[in-house]
Write a structure and sequence with these properties.
Layout lengths: L3 H10 L6 E8 L2 E15 L5 E8 L8 E7 H13 L13 H6 L3 E9 L2 E11 L6 E3 L4 E4 L7 H11 L12 H8 L19 H7 L4 H14 L1 H9 L5 E4 L1 H7 L11
Antiparallel strand pairs: 1-2, 2-3, 3-4, 5-6, 6-7, 8-9
Amino acid sequence: MANFEANVRQLFTQNADGAAFDAYTSIGSQIQVENRATLVVEKKLSPQKLERFQLVERTSPFAPPKVEYSLGLDEAAKIAASLTAAYMTTDYRRVLREPYWMQLFNVQDRNFNYIEGTTPRTSTEASLPCYNCGLILPASHITIDHTKPQAGGQDQAILKVFRGLSCHLTMLPGSGHFVNAYRTGAVDPLPTRAGRAGSSSSSDFAKERRYTLTAKGMTMLSVLIASAGLQPVLNACMHSAFNLRPYCAKCNISKSNALTDLSWIN
């Protein structure tokens, strides 16, 4: 599994002061190279020690470069570590083993009745509720699936995860139950949609802001891509806990984006 924190620190230590890399931005929920900016490594020992990445805007060959954002190495590494922690990879069923995810997704040993031949039996199995309808099923009968976006929405997944990390990486931070629980470290089980009060739909302007990177977000994304490559970042965000939920077969069929094969993920 990718270790984004180690990658970020390695990017810094293995490059000299002034080393430059492509900068990335979001336009219309799509990720693309920002040709007017560059990611620059800054490391100085005096008059004060500086270890940071800078997003430098270059508007024209004749204008002096302008620093849009400075992101300290330690903060970049901390955000990268959070991305790694939420990355489910091929072992996305770690939600059944790790205490934090088990509590958040309400994984418990529960009794289930079944018929063996003609004899009633009771079996105790790890189980959890479907995120959509609330039906409790044995873990072996639950599918871990993307919430959104569906196939082809990797860029949106990056922006969704960046919003969820709640580090001011997008213009409008995440505010859902999962995001709030992750931000505060709460371990109360997430409410299923079956028992959740409805909420008003967001305006188009609010949706646009949710999928727009801040200067800090652009800097962090550029650091991650420079240190690990675009595809690993896409994979980590698409298969992040921020973008996955447990579903029963019926609810999952209606979504038509089942996570059935992760063998190609590193």
